[in-house]
């Protein structure tokens, strides 16, 4: 093992660096440092040598050039078992550096701040830091590379065990972490710069950068491992910004369902309740208050709601909490909880209570879907019914209440797995048919579920996520009691479908937009 004699420290995040540097100094290790780091260490009584004294060159260009010098990079990159390398070091008066302790300018934090300009972003691209990290990681057999304050305690423990050394396998692991960091860092910069030009939206090569939030007990099934990651460099935290207030850790399936719940409740301005099971809503409603919305959503399919994810877009009140407490629920998510509601629900040890941010909209960011050996990338489906130019294609005009119900239904149907057909009134789901191979089957399931729940289908409206390919779906909707249909249109048999609507005296609206969801 090679003893560590000389260390270069240059950190932006100075958390823990004084204690770590003090440990190194007490081991008799010489410390070289830059600018603000050197100042901090000196102020805390830790002797260090400025980099400029090593290079005999001043910092230049407003600090852009500090460590880019042969006396730094030669000292890092020289192989200690190569006599020619050692001879060149001696020839040029270069003393080897055995450890570099570096973290980088917070580029992702800067670009996440509102009002950040391109010039500001560019000034927060670290050049010297990644260069030294890569050099040290390449030469990990001789140089240890430390890139995070979270590593300091571990390094201290290991060096204490080995009297100032680090085992080869630890150096290798640190190098792997270092290259992972520089890859992440460069990827964030590339993504940011690509966004400045629309034609770069889908570049020839793409680097996706995520940071692990937590390990999960398992994936969709117990035999699958899993972890939860947060995308780095995005302004929209999505569900990664949700705060867990109570209950056991979230599972893989909880998080999948939670994504659907949050997107749905944010689609409504009125007090809203949504219940999701296996990524499909089994009930959704709005009301004058949260309790009213909850009652209607739960009544849609109280059987499927068992063990579901319940979402709300208002602070959860005690009255609603008292009813929720009677049901087996995996997760409740809301913008906040009234104190008495929280105290009541938190008596259930395993019930997860989550607080979400309502001020973050669903943004048109890229959506990724992994396939064997590849990746599909698309725009997020964020187009709302309020953005659409609805086209009335039937002879009968929809009434105001029918149009209101159709808009409600269209907000819900876009979050249901295809093929999706739902029956709704103006403020609630009545019957939901999801994920069937034929649209007729989806209609049949929606009708059957409504009948099973004892909910009336007469006077409802129907929403279909894609066009009706045949008139049979229209006839089935009319037979069940529906009076209006909202659908994308676009079938080669649209005329036949519209004729069926006219024969059944149904109002029919085309959206011109479909919402397949696989």
Structural class given helices, strands, pairing? Answer: alpha/beta
Note the overall shape: elongated
Termini separation? 55 Å
What count of domains describes the coordinates?
3
Strand content: 15-25%
How many runs of DSSP E, i.e. beta strands?
A: 21
Mean pLDDT across residues: 89
Q: Sheet bearing the most strands, described?
A: 6 strands, mixed
Query: If you consult CATH, what is the topology of the largest domain?
Result: Rossmann fold
Continuous helix count = 18
Query: Class of the largest domain in CATH?
Result: Alpha Beta
The CATH superfamily of the largest domain is known as: Methylglyoxal synthase-like domain
**Fraction of residues in helix:** 25-40%
Going across the biggest sheet, name each strand in turn: 8-13-12-11-9-10
CATH architecture of the largest domain: 3-Layer(aba) Sandwich
User: Could you list the spans in which at least 5 consecutive residues all have pLDDT below 50?
Assistant: none
> Which radius of gyration do the C-alpha atoms yield?
30 Å
Describe the model.
- This protein is an alpha/beta fold and 518 residues long.
- It has three domains: 6-198, Methylglyoxal synthase-like domain (Rossmann fold, 3-Layer(aba) Sandwich); 242-355, AICAR transformylase, duplication domain (Cytidine Deaminase, domain 2), CATH 3.40.140.20; 389-510, Cytidine Deaminase, domain 2.
- 36% of the residues lie in helices and 19% in strands.
- It has helices at 17-26, 35-43, 51-55, 70-77, 83-91, 107-111, 118-123, 128-138, 152-161, 168-194, 252-265, 290-300, 318-324, 339-345, 400-413, 439-452, 472-480, 494-503, and strands at residues 6-11, 30-33, 49-50, 99-103, 144-146, 210-216, 226-231, 243-246, 272-277, 280-286, 308-312, 329-334, 352-355, 366-371, 374-379, 391-392, 421-424, 429-433, 461-464, 484-487, 507-510.
- The strands form five sheets. It has a six-stranded mixed sheet with strand order 8-13-12-11-9-10, sandwiched between helices.
- Helix 13 runs parallel beside helix 14 (339-345).
- The radius of gyration is 30 Å and the shape is elongated.
């Amino acid at each position: 093992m090679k003893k560590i004699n000389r260390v270069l420290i240059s950190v932006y995040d100075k958390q823990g660096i004084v204690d770590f540097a003090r440990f190194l100094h007490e081991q008799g290790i010489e410390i070289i440092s830059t600018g603000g780091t050197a100042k901090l260490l000196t102020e805390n009584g830790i002797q260090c040598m400025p980099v400029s004294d090593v290079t005999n060159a001043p910092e230049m260009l407003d600090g852009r050039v500090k460590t880019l010098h042969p006396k730094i990079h030669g000292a890092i990159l020289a192989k200690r078992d190569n006599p020619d390398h050692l001879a060149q070091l001696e020839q040029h008066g270069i003393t080897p550096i055995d450890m570099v302790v570096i973290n980088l300018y917070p580029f992702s934090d800067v670009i996440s701040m509102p009002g950040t300009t391109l010039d500001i972003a560019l000034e927060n691209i670290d050049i010297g830091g990644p260069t030294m990290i890569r050099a040290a990681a390449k030469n990990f057999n001789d140089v240890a590379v430390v890139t995070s304050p979270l590593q300091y305690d571990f390094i201290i423990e290991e060096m204490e065990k080995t009297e100032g050394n680090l085992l080869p396998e630890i150096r290798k692991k640190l190098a792997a972490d270092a290259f992972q960091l520089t890859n992440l860092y460069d990827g964030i910069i590339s993504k940011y710069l690509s966004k400045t030009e629309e034609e770069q939206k889908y570049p020839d090569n793409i680097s996706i950068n995520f940071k692990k939030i937590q390990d999960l007990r398992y994936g969709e099934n117990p035999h699958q491992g899993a972890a939860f990651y947060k995308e780095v460099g995005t302004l929209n935290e999505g569900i990664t910004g949700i705060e867990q207030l109570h209950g056991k850790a979230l599972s893989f399936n909880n998080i999948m369902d939670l994504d659907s719940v949050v997107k749905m409740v944010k689609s409504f301005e009125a007090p809203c309740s949504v219940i999701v099971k296996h990524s499909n809503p089994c009930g959704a409603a709005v009301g004058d208050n949260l309790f009213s919305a909850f009652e209607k959503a739960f009544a849609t399919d109280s059987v499927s709601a068992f063990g579901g994810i319940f979402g709300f877009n208002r602070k959860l009140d005690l009255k609603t909490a008292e009813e929720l407490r009677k049901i087996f629920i995996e997760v409740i998510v809301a913008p906040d909880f009234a104190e008495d509601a929280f105290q009541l629900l938190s008596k259930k040890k395993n019930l997860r209570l989550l607080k979400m941010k309502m001020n973050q909209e669903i943004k048109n960011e890229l959506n990724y879907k992994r396939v064997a050996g590849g990746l599909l990338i698309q725009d997020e489906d964020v187009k709302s019914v309020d953005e659409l130019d609805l086209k009335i294609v039937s002879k009968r005009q929809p009434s105001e209440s029918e149009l209101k119900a159709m808009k409600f239904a269209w907000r819900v149907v876009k979050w249901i797995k295809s093929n999706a057909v739902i029956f709704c009134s103006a403020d609630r789901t009545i019957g939901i048919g999801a994920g069937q191979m034929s649209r007729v089957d989806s209609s049949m399931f929606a009708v059957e579920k409504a009948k099973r729940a004892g909910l009336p289908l007469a006077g409802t409206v129907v929403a279909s996520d894609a066009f009706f390919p045949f008139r049979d779906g229209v006839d089935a909707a009319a037979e069940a009691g529906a009076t209006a249909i909202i659908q994308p249109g676009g079938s080669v048999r649209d005329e036949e479908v519209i004729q069926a609507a006219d024969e059944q005296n149904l109002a029919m609206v085309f959206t011109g937009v479909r919402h397949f969801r696989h």
